[in-house]
Amino acid sequence: MFLRDELGHLRPSGLFLRGVRTVRLHHVVEAQEFNRGMLEELFAIAGEMERAVWEGGSKLLDDKIMASLFYEESTRTRFSFETAMHRLGGSVISTENARQFSSVSKGETLEDTIRIMNGYADVIVMRHYESGAARRAADVSRVPIINAGDGTGQHPTQAFLDLYTIQKELGHLDDLEIAVVGDLANGRTVRSLCYLLAKYRNVRIHLVAPEVVRMRQDIKDYLARHDVWFQEETNLRVIARTVDVVYQTRIQKERFGDRADDYRAAQGVYVIDRDLVESMKPASIVMHPLPRVDEITVEVDSDRRAAYFRQAQNGLYIRMALLAGCLGKDLEPLITEARTTSNG
Ligand code: CP
User: Cα–Cα distance between 288 and 308 in angstroms, integer?
Assistant: First the structure.
């Protein structure tokens, strides 16, 4: 599906779909609602979207409006969703700080805001500071709700792009050995990622976290129920030598409230530096949902194994695929556009 160009970048190498016309989605709230078949279709469509972007975009969603409703800060998720909509010819209505600049500041409930937005937009992409907020929104929404991160709950679209990145970079999702590192208690990205990894065969997960932010029991129970091998570890330098993926995360200062001592105990415990990366297998990768603070030193960025900026780029293609799926679009026009372009 992908070829490396002369600069070593992965490029889509042709039509992916082979009969996949769309993936039909409605709300996207929790990662575990997706099965392997849906993920394969989503990744095939993301490959098509990647090609469409390279060829100048598409008009697939030119009759659709996306609302981006963000109650928490974001760089990648908000901008990539908005770019995704623009690249597909759609329109965007947006508030960059819904807590301050929407009527929630006057006391409006989330449910009422969603009911109102249903009259304006065809799909709502929402980030919220409370775990479970996306489910509450979906429960009252006629139009699709896409969870762009809800507190310490989940971040399913990040997990989709994470798997898509692993598939592209390593060529497989089964038989994977991965270390997830850092703030596993508060990190919604690693929670969603664990739910998805559990769908693949022979996956081994090392959970490497400072004592105060160890993975919560619900995820460990889920992995155990699904017969996924996992182990809590402390020595990242040893684990890093054998795994296929080191998935680093930021210690999320904003989740600690007045527990400053706990934050200090977690901060700086696991740092990925050049020495650590050079000890990793040549074909392995370092991932991070970003933003980073100092948990990956900048000298690592130039190593081929540093996949985190490519990972963020993949978010655009996955989110284009999700929007097409949520808006019920058949991809035939996209394929026709591709054929027209390739025929000159
Ligand atoms: N990975 C991620 O969710 O980044 P943002 O917070 O910048 O959207």
Answer: 5
CB atoms within 10 A of CB 193: 29
Q: Which two tokens stand for residue 124?
A: 């709502």
Decide if pLDDT at 9 tops 60.
no
Residue nearest to atom 3 of ligand 1 (CA): 77
Rounded Cα distance between 9 and 12, Å, is 10
User: Could you tell me if residue 342 is inside a domain?
Assistant: no
Closest by Cα among 9, 39, 282 to 174: 39
Whether residues 160 and 243 fall in one domain: yes
- Residue 305 included in any domain: no
Return d(Cα 281, Cα 286) in angstroms, integer: 11
Which protein residue has the closest C-alpha to ligand 1 atom 6? 74
> 157 with 322: CB under 8 angstroms?
yes
Q: Among candidates 222, 196, 229, which has minimal Cα distance to 35?
A: 196
Bond before 291 cis per omega within 30 degrees = yes
CA 209, CA 234: separation in Å to the nearest integer?
Answer: 7
Separation of CA 313 and ligand 1 centre (Å): 12
pLDDT digits (tens, 9 = 90+) for 149-184: 999 999 999 999 999 999 999 999 999 999 999 999
Both 279 and 171 in a single domain?
A: yes
Residue 141 token pair: 């929404």
What residues flank ligand 1, with Cβ below 6 Å? 74-77, 149, 155, 158, 289-291
Give residues with Cβ within 8 angstroms of 191, minimum separation 6: 152, 153, 154, 155, 216, 219
Mean pLDDT along residues 45-66: 94
Out of 128, 155, 250, 305, the active site residue is 155
How confident is the model over 35-46, as pLDDT tens digits? Answer: 999 999 899 999
Atom of ligand 1 nearest to the CA of 127: 8
- Judgement on whether residues 141 and 170 belong to the same structural domain of the protein: no
Give the angle subtended at the CA of 92 by the CAs of 71 and 72, to the nearest 5°. 10
Question: Containing domain of residue 213, as a range?
Answer: 156-300
* Distance, CA of 245 to CA of 306 (rounded, Å): 10
Rounded to two decimals, the pTM is 0.91
